[in-house]
Amino acid sequence: MTKTITDDKPRIHFDCTKCPAFCCSIYERVQVTKRDISRLAKHFGVTVESAIKRYTKMHSGERVLRRTHDELFDADACMFLDREKRGCTIYHARPAICREYPARSRCSYYDVLRFERQQQDDENVLPLFQITFRQAKKDVQRDDKGEKVWKWEEGKGGRRKAEG
Ligand code: SF4
Ligand code: SF4
Hints:
With 164 residues, the protein is of the alpha+beta class. Helices cover 26% and strands 18% of the residues.
């Protein structure tokens, strides 16, 4: 009988221990809930008010984890990412959204990472790409030469629960 593997099956096709934590570096918004903040406060032995001030900030109307510069990806990464070991320094106190991510059996970055390392026969290859979130307008317009023109609106990129 043919074995079918779907995205809903529990088999996992990625290994975070072999990844430079791209997801902790690329998403500018890692949302935190009140419960996440309470967990952080308990972890660091500080008040909830201090945890909010020290570890979070507001971004586009949402409370998110603070970020600091990460040389590896030349971008800001989560303040709790260990820049050398490429792992989470608050693993047991990390927000719910980090526990759920990527919430499926595959991770797109890990697929690219493995593909490029095999393709280049080099385990040190670090593929870089930027994810830009845009929403296509439904109405396609044409320029003066009759070519189709799609206009895009910036979306909000972040590690967050799916909406809808
Ligand atoms: S979820 Fe994907 S990008 Fe994030 S650490 Fe794991 S393999 Fe890497
Ligand atoms: S809290 Fe940990 S798992 Fe979540 S983004 Fe920050 S470093 Fe990554």
